[in-house]
Amino acid sequence: MRIDVVSLFPDFVRQCAAVGVVGRAQQRELLQVETWNPRDYSSDRHRSVDSSSYGGGPGMVMMIEPLRAALAAMRDAAPEPAHVIYLSPQGARLTQGRVEALAKLPRIALLCGRYEGVDERLLAHEVDEELSIGDYVLSGGELAAAVIIDAVGRLQDGALNDAQSAEQDSFSDGLLDCPHYARPVQDALGTVPAVLLSGDHAAIARWRLKQSLGRTWLRRPDLLSQRVLDAKSRALLDEFRREHAS
Ligand SMILES: NC(=O)c1ccc(NCc2ccccc2)nc1
């Protein structure tokens, strides 16, 4: 998969994508991240990329031309059409489901706004999708782009080895993840639940699903209401709720 990022701070984005699982995915050529700086495409000698907002008000707005030229250069750099995503608080909330769909695309482009955002005319003509990583405002779209690169990059085939498999992730089946324990078994902070030491894989799987269901019920009932539970899961959750109440 190829990810092109249009940003005034390309080094920041490249560094985020250079470490860990995503950095390794790039080394293994499972993922390619390229950056495009609109300032390199500004036509005036001041290399301006923003201007004050028509209608007045505080703050600056990113201008059409440098972005349009950067997007054109991005498109010309590879034959595959790019699905262009604009990161902004006005976008649709990013979910793991959407991440999984994006991870299947051959190429996406991430447009990072700064200041008060981007000229609406550019968005109307060049952007396929607007996404938000949460209901808060950042100083730029780069952190949101880094989130997408990470969430999508780690899902590329071969990026995670079995020990890290994505299938057991939180949200992988619409539930929160179960608790996890590392050595030692005995610690001043407490012990490890006995079932996890039993070697009884069916009992361990049952315990983990029960914990995921219980945690989701306690912390994120909204996720639970979106999910149809089979009879087994419903019984496990009832068991958790009875134990929780007592
Ligand atoms: N919640 C998010 O995903 C997000 C994305 C970008 C951002 N800041 C850049 C920007 C500000 C205003 C308008 C458009 C872009 N802040 C938060």
Overall 3D form: elongated
Low-confidence stretches: none
Bound molecules: 6-(benzylamino)pyridine-3-carboxamide
The main sheet orders its strands as 2-1-6-5-7
Sketch the topology as an H/E string, one letter per element. EHHEEEHEHEHEHEEHHH
Distance between the termini: 50 Å
Helix content: 25-40%
Count of strand segments: 9
Number of helices: 9
Question: pLDDT average, as an integer?
Answer: 96
Record the SSE blueprint.
Layout: E1 2-6, H1 10-16, H2 20-27, E2 32-36, E3 50-52, E4 60-62, H3 64-76, E5 83-93, H4 96-103, E6 107-112, H5 120-126, E7 129-132, H6 142-153, E8 186-187, E9 190-191, H7 201-219, H8 221-225, H9 231-245
Parallel strand pairs: 1-2, 1-6, 5-6, 5-7
Antiparallel strand pairs: 3-4, 8-9
Helix pairs in contact: 4-6, 7-9
Summarize the structure.
The chain is α/β, with parallel strands linked by helices and 246 residues long.
Keywords:
246 residues; alpha/beta; two-stranded antiparallel sheet; binds 6-(benzylamino)pyridine-3-carboxamide
Structural notes for this entry:
It is a single chain. The protein has helices at residues 10-16, 20-27, 64-76, 96-103, 120-126, 142-153, 201-219, 221-225, 231-245, and strands at 2-6, 32-36, 50-52, 60-62, 83-93, 107-112, 129-132, 186-187, 190-191. Helix 4 (96-103) packs across helix 6 (142-153) and helix 7 crosses helix 9. The chain is an alpha/beta fold and 246 residues long. The chain starts with a strand and ends with a helix. The protein binds 6-(benzylamino)pyridine-3-carboxamide. The site of 6-(benzylamino)pyridine-3-carboxamide has 15 residues, from strand 5.
